[in-house]
Amino acid sequence: xxxxxxxxxxxxxxxxxxxxxxxxxxxxxxxxxxxxxxxxxxxxxxxxxxxxxxxxxxxxxxxxxxxxxxxxxxxxxxxxxxxxxxxxxxxxxxxxxxxxxxxxxxxxxxxxxxxxxxxxxxxxxxxxxxxxxxxxxxxxxxxxxxxxxxxxxxxx
Length: 156
Hints:
Elements lengths: L2 E3 L8 E3 L4 E10 L5 E8 L4 H15 L5 E5 L5 H7 L6 E5 L14 H11 L13 H22 L1
Parallel strand pairs: 5-6
Antiparallel strand pairs: 1-3, 2-3, 3-4
Helix pairs in contact: 1-2
């Protein structure tokens, strides 16, 4: 998931060694239409595989009837399977990039999450991590999602 730079007074942060960004990482969970279901924010030094159990636990509380998820290749491995096991009959599809792809390629199901991130990043407040707490950063992501829903409702 995307890492976001934080300000000097931006509260908890970590270093994402892959992207060389000192800030926070946002794990989002969307429905098939791209609407935000849940989000978890933590320091960028936490790997994607380590963040998935927290995200799945929050989704389980909110949507107990959910049974199938699509995940990025970064989430593949035993930690995803271990996080799914206590949840019951859940299954996961890992969306992998083709081995012969040398340029950008739209991946099935993956574009839904990327589109949601683009919608959320239209908000100036989310361009950088200004908040002192992770809970506040998470709340701003939910508020941006509510703003998106309100725009859609008023357009009709």
